[in-house]
Amino acid sequence: MIMALSEAEKETVIQFDESTNHAKVYTASWAVARTLKKAGFQPTRNSEGAWWFEIPIEAMTIQGSKQTAKIG
Predict the structure, then answer these.
(1) Residue 42's CB: how many other CB atoms inside 10 A?
(2) Domain ranges within the chain, ordered by starting residue
(3) pLDDT digits (tens, 9 = 90+) for 16-48
(4) Distance CA 44, CA 62 (A)
(5) 10, 11, 12, 63, 64 from 7: Cα distances, Å
(6) Residue 55 forms beta bridges with which residues?
(7) Percent of the chain with pLDDT over 70
(8) How far apart are CA 39 and CA 22, in angstroms?
(9) Which of 7, 35, 52, 59 has the fewest CB atoms in 10 Å of its CB?
């Protein structure tokens, strides 16, 4: 039985360090998973309501209220 997650439980965690050129992305958000899939990334693992992706750091940007930073 799949239970609905609260908004707070639909988290996304991005982990990367300078030793590799890939970021590991865990998400419990359907919207984030769908966005990553539409961008051409396939999950490396998934389970009920959770997805794990590995994406190149060069593909990441962080958008703030005042500027956007390209990572990598």
Answers:
(1) 10
(2) 11-70
(3) 888 999 999 999 999 999 999 999 999 999 998
(4) 22
(5) 5, 8, 11, 21, 21
(6) 23
(7) 94
(8) 16
(9) 7
Burial class (CB in 10 A: 0-12, 13-18, 19+), 51: buried
Q: What are the tokens at 27?
A: 């998400």
Tokens of 61: 């940007």
> What is the helix (H) or strand (E) element at residue 70, kind and residue range?
strand 68-70
Q: Please, how many CA atoms are within 13 Å of residue 25, restricted to the half-sphere of its CB?
A: 23
- Residue 46 is which amino acid? N
Among 70, 57, 68, CA closest to 25: 57
pLDDT band for position 62 (cuts 50, 70, 90): confident
Query: What is the pLDDT at residue 14?
Result: 93
Q: What is the pTM of this model?
A: 0.79
